[in-house]
Amino acid sequence: MGDMSKYIVKRVLMGLLSIFVVATLTFFLMNLVPGGPFVAEKSISKAAQEALAAKYGLDKPLGQQYITYITDFLKGDMGLSLRQRGRTVADIIFSKFPVSAKLAGIAVAVALCLGIPLGCISAYTRGKLTDNIIIVLGTCGIAIPSFITSVLLLYGFGVKLNVLPTVGLNEWQAYIMPVTALSIYPTAYITRLMRSSLLDVMGQDYIRTAKAKGVSSFLILFKHALRNAILPIVTYVGPMLAYLMTGSFVVEKIFTIPGLGREFVSAITNRDYTMVMGTTIVLATLVITANVIVDILYKIIDPRIKLK
């Protein structure tokens, strides 16, 4: 088995261990929170609450509940939702996941297509007016939270000008506002990251040598420097995709998008233990998988990196 294969196997095993730890912590922390999934039910007697708890196995000792959950999960069963009666957690997650994934995917593409060129322009025009404008815009993009941007977009383009749809994702125009709100932060971050990485690379000896040989600045920037400068961006893309999928619940709530984020928030509010567990495990798997893929890509882009 080669170094790369050993590394992949090791990372996958570490990933599985991480998912198990996340699942365990989530299970016990959720059960430490006062109240329960049936306490908030209106006009429901104590006996009825106890009957529901017995039906879903919530009357058993916590250790026993945990072992049952983990063994069922290993068989591929995430259980029934405690609040959406008659629906399995897997059914809810996999019906809502594509909506969030599509939204996050478009936002990542937008962030990369804007962030990388802006970072390059900023580095190329260092110290000039263009560079200063990009730095100011980048700082604002990082500082302003997505829910503020969402509300401003919704009020400006949805209510005042009435040019964009404000609810759901039934037409392509409906993607404009949520994607903009989601992609502002990563675009700004990529721009700043690209600028600093490119300036760092431009100070290296081999770049000075190329300059001394009379190679044009533009060619040095895009042919020699960009390949090495883009490495930090590659590292950021995996976690960013996972973050946009998990961190989009506020945006999903504001624009009434039927995605996984909205289900996750409702599950926490309603103490829907099985739904919270299932969603957390799926999202943790996403983050860990994204990180493993990024590490492998990192090695492919720069073969000098040693695998450990």
In short:
By secondary structure, this protein is mostly helical. The protein is built from 13 helices and no strands. Helix 1 (3-32) packs antiparallel against helix 13, helix 4 (89-124) crosses helix 7 (176-202) and helix 12 (260-269) crosses helix 13 (273-301).
Architecture overview:
The protein is mainly α. The chain is built from 13 helices and no strands. Helix 4 crosses helix 7, helix 4 packs antiparallel against helix 10 and helix 6 packs across helix 7. The chain is flat, with a radius of gyration of 24 Å. The chain starts with a helix and ends in a 7-residue tail after the last helix.
Low-pLDDT runs of 5+ residues are none
Shape descriptor: flat
**Strand portion:** under 5%
Please report the distance between the alpha carbons of the first and last residues: 15 Å
Order of helices and strands: HHHHHHHHHHHHH
- Helix fraction? over 70%
Overall mean pLDDT score? Answer: 82
| Cα-atom radius of gyration | 24 Å
Describe the structure using short key phrases.
mainly alpha, 13 helices, 308 residues
Q: Layout of SSEs?
A:
Layout: H1 3-32, H2 46-55, H3 62-74, H4 89-124, H5 129-143, H6 146-160, H7 176-202, H8 205-212, H9 217-229, H10 231-246, H11 249-254, H12 260-269, H13 273-301
Helix pairs in contact: 1-13, 4-5, 4-7, 4-10, 5-7, 6-7, 7-9, 7-10, 10-13, 12-13
